[in-house]
Specification:
The chain is mostly beta strands and 251 residues long. The protein has one domain: Fumarylacetoacetate hydrolase, domain 2, CATH 3.90.850. Helix content is 10%, strand content 37%. The chain is built from four helices and 16 strands. It has helices at residues 47-53, 127-131, 139-142, 189-197, and strands spanning 5-13, 17-28, 39-43, 62-66, 71-72, 78-80, 89-90, 93-99, 115-122, 125-126, 148-155, 167-172, 175-181, 207-209, 231-236, 240-248. The strands form four sheets. Strands 4-3-14-8-9-11-5 form a seven-stranded mixed β-sheet. A five-stranded mixed β-sheet has the order 6-16-15-12-13, with no helix packed on it. The chain has a two-stranded antiparallel ribbon with strand order 1-2.
Length: 251
């Protein structure tokens, strides 16, 4: 994704929509497809992942926030934390929702009218900070810089009419680690939007990570952690592949 290419510049916004300008931009590379005002994430939202972790099936969505400055783009490095050292960094392949406009108190019937599109996400997680040093809160472990790769682009709903029946795969150095389908979600997209927006205003352009399927490094025996020099990828049917190298962080 660091390769230069030729693209057409668009005008507009998530709320008003985008239009073609006819202006060609050359020598560009893909960044994250947006700078979201908020990143919401859902834990334990796949049946197979809940089973592999030994967790009970949740009665309500498990919600946490990721720092918006954790967002990075395709081809950009994931940095292993150095100052708050982590030796248990894990990768999570996820489908992400992008909101088209500000919303509150959505219903399952109107929820999709507020979706601008979908993209691939990697909910990178420092498991030692998540499990042993967090006091039960996940945001610290999932909010380090570069811990939210997004991309390679946003696919609009008309191009992805059935987002709950998509193949989703996560790879580490080409090795297939996660291989599932979004049909495994416990709470579907409409249910998540209804829950997250209840009595809560969600800004336009917000990103919602919908959870990860089984196969994460933490659940393997022995565990498989990301190391500098690795390459991780998220591949979702109908969207594409998000790939990032792993490097050592600096203080």
């Amino acid at each position: 994704m660091d390769k230069c290419g030729t693209f057409e510049e668009l005008a507009g916004s998530w709320e008003t929509g985008f239009r073609q300008t006819g202006e060609v931009v050359s020598g560009a590379r893909l960044l994250a497809p947006l700078d979201p005002p908020a990143v919401y994430a859902i834990g334990l939202n796949y049946h197979d992942h809940a089973v592999e972790t030994g967790a009970p099936i949740p009665s309500y969505p498990v919600v946490f926030l990721k720092n918006i400055r954790a967002v990075t783009g395709p081809g950009q490095p994931i940095r292993v934390p150095a100052k708050l050292r982590s030796d248990e960094v894990d990768s999570e392949a996820e489908l992400a929702i992008v909101l088209s406009r500000e919303c509150r108190n959505l219903t399952r019937e109107n929820a999709m009218h507020h979706v601008a599109g979908f993209t691939c996400a990697n909910d990178v997680s420092a498991r030692d900070w998540q499990k042993k040093r967090s006091g039960g809160q996940w945001s610290r472990a999932k909010s380090f810089d570069t811990f939210c790769p997004l991309g390679p682009w946003v696919v609009t709903p008309d191009e992805l009419p059935d987002p709950l029946h998509l193949s989703i795969k996560g790879r580490l150095n080409g090795r297939l680690m996660q291989d599932s389908n979004t049909s495994q979600m416990i709470f579907g997209i409409r249910a998540l939007l209804e829950f997250l927006s209840a009595d809560t205003t969600l800004p336009a352009g917000s990103v919602i990570l919908t959870g990860t399927p089984h196969g994460v490094g933490m659940a393997r025996k022995p565990p498989v952690w990301l190391q500098p020099g690795d390459t991780v990828s998220v591949e979702i049917e109908g969207i594409g592949t998000l790939e990032n190298p792993v490097v050592e962080g600096t203080e």
